[in-house]
Structure formats: C-alpha cells, structure tokens
Amino acid sequence: MDDDLVYVDRCQSGETEAFGILYDRYLEKIYRFVYYKTFSKETAEDITSNVFHKALEKINSFSGDKGSFSSWLYRIARNSVIDHYRTSKDDLSLEDVFEVGVDERTPETIDAVSALKTVQTYLESLDARQREIITLRVWEDKSQYRSRSQNGLLAGDSRTS
Predict the structure, then answer these.
(1) What angle do CA 69, 30, 146 make, to 5 degrees?
(2) Torsion sign (Cα): 96, 151, 20, 16
(3) What is d(CA 64, CA 5) in angstroms, rounded to the nearest whole number?
(4) Cα–Cα distance for residue pair 149/151, rounded to 1 Å
(5) Whole-prediction pTM
(6) Average pLDDT, stretch 91-119?
(7) Which pLDDT belongs to residue 91?
(8) From CA 34, how far away is CA 76, in angstroms rounded?
(9) What integer pLDDT is reported at residue 151 of this predicted model?
(10) Which residues contact residue 38 at a Cβ distance below 8 angstroms, ignoring those fewer than 6 apart?
(11) Do 1 and 25 contact (CB within 8 A), yes or no?
C-alpha cells in the first residue's frame, strides 16, 4: 500500500508503535502465505510470529527504493519458511517446501478435501517457483507482474497460465 512507507518511516524514526499498523495490515496475509507452505496451524503461527519479529528488528535496513514494504515482508516470510524446512527434523528437500499437502488439520468437509486434492494434482505438475507464483496470485490476490517481480522473475521467465 502507498501509505506503508509513511509507517515504515515513522518506525525507522523510533515510533515502533507505527509497526503495529503494518502488523495489523499484513498479519493475516503473511499467515495465509506461510500456512499454504506448511499446512500446519502451529508451524504457520510460529513462523508468522518470527517474520514480524525479524521485520521489526531489521526495519532500519528496509529501503523503499529497493521495493515495496509488502515485497520485503513476503521475502522475509519466504526465507523463514525455507529456513524452517532446512532446520526441521523432517527429511524434506527444499523443492518439497512448495508442495501442497492435506492432513487431518486441513478442511473438515469432504468437498473441501476433494477440491484441495484436485488443486494439489495441478500444483504438483509445476516447479517450485511456479507454485509460489500461483500461491501469491490466487491466495494473496497479487497481480501476475507483482508475483513474478516479488520472486525475482522477469516477465516471460515463467508461464503460469
């Protein structure tokens, strides 16, 4: 959002209360992003908490000249998910970080589980970067250009349609 920079500037000037507004604005979005990478409520909550802690800790290193606050925050979230899988006891490859899974904690209804399995089948045919672009585009309502640029892709590098 355009006024994110106003709150970032205030926070960088020592008004850490301004970070609360950014936190409220992005908490649900970051949580959903992390949840769709981990499919664990507890893990998503922990990682999301760490994302905002890191963001507040490093807020002075943010520069609006290098990109938007939301892109910076999503980058922290993405890296935190990768770090989680690198340090977890599960023997998963980083490619598996972006797999969609269904377990006992995901949708309670049979229809929702069936729909998720269909989505999983389609997403499994994509590479990790393409899956991330789809996740940002569909679940986070980001434009195709913004999804690609946030992931360091140039137009034409990856087709998602």
Answers:
(1) 50
(2) positive
(3) 7
(4) 5
(5) 0.61
(6) 53
(7) 54
(8) 11
(9) 53
(10) 44, 47, 81, 84
(11) yes
Q: What is the pLDDT at residue 118?
A: 76
99 conformational bin, left if phi > 0, alpha if psi -120 to 50, beta if neither: beta
Largest CA distance in the chain: 51
Q: In the structure, what pLDDT confidence band is assigned to residue 130 with cuts at 50, 70 and 90?
A: confident
Average pLDDT rounded to a whole number, residues 59-66: 94
- Residues 126 and 99: beta-carbon distance below 8 Å: no
Q: Can you list the domains of the chain with their CATH numbers?
A: 4-150 (1.10.1740.10)
pLDDT band at 109 (very low <50, low <70, confident <90, very high): very low
Q: What share of the chain is helix, strand, coil (3-state, %, to 5)?
A: 70, 0, 30
Report residue 37 CA to chain centroid gap.
8
Which tens digit of pLDDT belongs to each residue from 35-52?
A: 888 888 999 999 999 999
What ranges make up the beta strands (E) of the chain? none
Q: Which DSSP category does 100 fall into?
A: -
Name which of 119, 143, 125, 124 is nearest 133 in CA terms. 143
